[in-house]
Amino acid sequence: MPERNWHNGHMNKLDSKKREQVISALIEGCSIRSAVRMTGVAKKTIMRLLVEVGEVCMRYQDRAFRNLTCRRLQVDELWAFIYAKQKNVTPKIAADHPEAGDVWLWTAIDADSKLVPCWMLGPRDAIAARDFIEDLAGRLANRVQLTTDGHKPYLKAVDKAFGEEIDYAQLVKIYGADVEGQKRYSPAQCIGTRTHAVVGDPDPRYISTSYVERQNLSVRMTVRRYTRLTNAFSKKIENHAASVALGYFAYNFIKIHRTLRMTPAMAAGVTNRLWEVSDLVALWEAEEAGLERAA
Description:
Helix content: 40-55%
Low-confidence stretches: 1-11
Mean pLDDT: 89
Largest sheet: 6 strands, mixed
Strand order of the largest sheet: 5-4-3-6-7-8
Distance between the termini: 21 Å
């Protein structure tokens, strides 16, 4: 028997306007329960909508972000967890929820257009670094300058993906001792940095991870599942991935960057117009119609 949306009394294939309301709430950082209260749509329906629209966002951005003419890129990793923090994953939790534990968001940003051309969820290990950097390399049309932090797996990953066809540098932060009583809530204080060129001839003026770190803050402020010290964390990796994809679609295509006064996708030449939430819904419904015709 099909699930019903008991809040509005009809079968839960929502109309376009209701979908727009739900998506707008989610991309503004509202929790699922808040979206339920704001839109009157059932929780299960919103969860399914998130997964469906998230997959649309993933597919579209994967297609759109090709042959990019970026010049300066920065990459970083952002921590989160699924179901439980790694230290709290018991054998029973691991058996019932194999994806439980820490998950890292690998992300890149174009320092000029502020476009996020790719991201990946996974562990913070050498295999994930290789896969992420290879995906990034496959989206570029020209030689770039790349800055990463001092995470060692980047060295082999960049070498394998780019060889000598890159200007690559690392920026390593130097941290002081933790301040007692504060270390639970914030990292140790950064007391300095050091940089070193790894490959090619990176311009010292642009050896920086400031933009990608600021973008990580935007993720924590707008993707509800990354809000610290709350119960808004993801219980399933599928929902987490969908939420990230929707968040980046809104960032790249829908939200005007205050400094650029246009969206990152416009600044990067990926699109020539400002997208609205209604455009995303139309894209989603066009895919649905295509699947129905194929069936």
